[in-house]
Amino acid sequence: MRTLLLATALLSGLLGSLAAHYSAPVPYHAFCRVMWLFAKPCDEIGTKIVQQIRAFYPQYMLVSASALSVKANHTSLDGLQAENVTFTFSSAVETEGCRTGGQSISLGFTSLLDNGLNYCNLFNLLSASGLTSSPGFIEITNEWACLGFGLATCKA
């Protein structure tokens, strides 16, 4: 019962919490918003994300990094698609670790249904850095917060 209550609280707060961290995407731009919970400190999560962004150069270019957020740009291998990627960090009571928000927004006017491209921009960084197998890892998103989420087939 406790797990059900926690899951309900987390899901109901997803859109509100993500909206508080990010401004609304520009219409006609594909986007994805995800929240992750980790049982690790935020500085450790942020450091791993920054290291992975640097490892994926030139597809990912680090724009800025602080204790509260990491910003990067992603460009497809063919150079035809570009997205802004942002991660934000705050303490998570649920896991006694870090609540991490992720957002990827396509810069070009594209179909809103991007087949999971924006989701994969975020997930590939976490997966390649090993964060998806971290203790306490929980991912929270849905098709409303992350267009194309259900179609995503990510390959890091």
From TrEMBL:
Keywords, comma-separated and alphabetical: Signal
Signal peptide interval: 1-19
Protein name in the entry: Uncharacterized protein
Lineage: Eukaryota, Metazoa, Chordata, Craniata, Vertebrata
